[in-house]
């Protein structure tokens, strides 16, 4: 790999790391109830380009907008660089285009949350669904950026011919991961609203059939996360059976380990009553689990040969809050 391609790969991974930080800061905005810090103004903050004498909530929200704007500029730079460096049809070029599309969607979702006041103490079902959608798009965004770096480093393009069973298994795993990630985002919203006193009862309240839907998610999400964490062990075994190369073995067990680790992080989050710092750790590992699964899929689909694996039903995926 020459110096130009090496620099591009490093820049792409830098984008991945920076976007993870932006994602965590966005979760901090939600967890602290600071989403309305700039009012219902967007892209301005409380009607100003730079707010004067901001309070804590406004400072938190404004800083998130600034970091998100930088993330947008970085992805634009990544796309322009990819278009100049790679020929049409190259998988790194396609991944960079996808990253730009998902970044635009990410910005629009963020703007909609503010403009429709789906922030701060809003406990509506619309907000819950919006956060779930936001999480899925975030997964797709960081996955696309990671694939840009992956393919730019010379990894083979995906080949789906003769891999129907494997492809179905990977799609099921990715969809399941997105479902559990979405449920984690909604669960985290419920934890925040309980801690802010918007929902009655607090985080220690008993949960029954009459509980608020956001409170019920505190049972549903861990169940889904546990099921998928266990399913990922089977996925790792079948991935290695299909391709026992060192790269696949490493990614397979990294993926399974992170997913299973999420079960314990989720349990710790519940035991500690969902403190903000624990929610951020849980979210970070959910993002890492998604990235590991995406790269494992890219590795398996890049390998030639006939698939001999037996598909394993995967109900869901990594817990994320």
Describe the protein's architecture and organization:
This protein has helices at residues 3-31, 56-85, 91-115, 125-152, 164-195, 213-242, 246-271, 276-301. The chain folds into 2 domains: 1-155; 158-303. The chain is built from 8 helices and no strands. One of its GO terms (biological process) is heme A biosynthetic process. This is Cytochrome oxidase assembly protein. One of its GO terms (cellular component) is membrane. One of its GO terms (molecular function) is metal ion binding.
Count the beta strands: 0
What share of the residues does DSSP label as strand, in percent?
A: under 5%
As for the number of domains, it is 2
Task: Report the structural category.
Answer: mainly alpha
Whole-number mean pLDDT: 89
Poorly predicted residue ranges: 305-321
Largest sheet: none
Summarize the helix and strand pattern as letters.
HHHHHHHH
| Euclidean distance between termini CA atoms | 38 Å
InterPro entries: COX15/CtaA_fam (IPR003780), COX15/CtaA_HemeA_synthase (IPR050450)
Protein name: Cytochrome oxidase assembly protein
Main location: membrane
Pathway: Porphyrin-containing compound metabolism
Topology overview:
Layout: H1 3-31, H2 56-85, H3 91-115, H4 125-152, H5 164-195, H6 213-242, H7 246-271, H8 276-301
Helix pairs in contact: 1-2, 1-4, 1-8, 2-3, 3-4, 4-5, 4-8, 5-6, 5-8, 6-7, 7-8
């Amino acid at each position: 790999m020459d110096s130009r391609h090496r620099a591009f790969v490093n820049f792409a991974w830098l984008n991945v790391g920076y976007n993870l930080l932006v994602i965590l800061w966005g979760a901090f905005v939600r967890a602290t109830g600071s989403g309305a810090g700039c009012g219902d103004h967007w892209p301005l903050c409380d009607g100003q380009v730079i707010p004067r004498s901001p309070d804590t909530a406004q400072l938190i929200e404004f800083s998130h907008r600034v970091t998100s704007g930088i993330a947008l500029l970085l992805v634009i730079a990544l796309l322009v660089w990819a278009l100049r460096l790679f020929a049409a049809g190259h998988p790194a070029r396609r991944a960079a285009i996808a990253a730009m599309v998902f970044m635009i969607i990410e910005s629009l979702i963020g703007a909609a949350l503010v403009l429709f006041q789906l922030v701060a103490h809003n406990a509506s079902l619309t907000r819950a669904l919006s956060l779930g959608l936001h999480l899925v798009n975030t997964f797709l965004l960081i996955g696309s950026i990671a694939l840009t770096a992956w393919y730019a480093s010379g990894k083979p393009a995906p080949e789906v011919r003769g891999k129907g069973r494997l492809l179905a298994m990977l799609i099921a795993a990715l969809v399941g991961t997105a479902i559990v990630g979405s449920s984690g985002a909604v669960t985290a919203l419920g934890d925040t609203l309980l801690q802010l006193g918007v929902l009655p009862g607090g985080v220690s309240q008993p949960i029954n059939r009459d509980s608020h839907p956001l409170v019920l998610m505190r049972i549903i999400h861990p169940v889904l996360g546990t099921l998928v964490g266990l399913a990922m062990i089977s996925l790792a075994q079948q991935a290695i059976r299909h391709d026992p190369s060192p790269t696949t073995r490493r990614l397979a067990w990294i993926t399974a380990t992170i997913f299973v680790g999420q079960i314990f992080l989720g349990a710790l989050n519940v035991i500690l009553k969902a403190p903000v710092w624990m929610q951020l750790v849980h979210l970070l590992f959910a993002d890492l689990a998604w990235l590991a699964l995406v790269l494992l899929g890219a590795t398996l689909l890049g390998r030639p040969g006939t698939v001999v694996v037996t598909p394993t039903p995967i109900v869901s995926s990594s817990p994320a809050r």
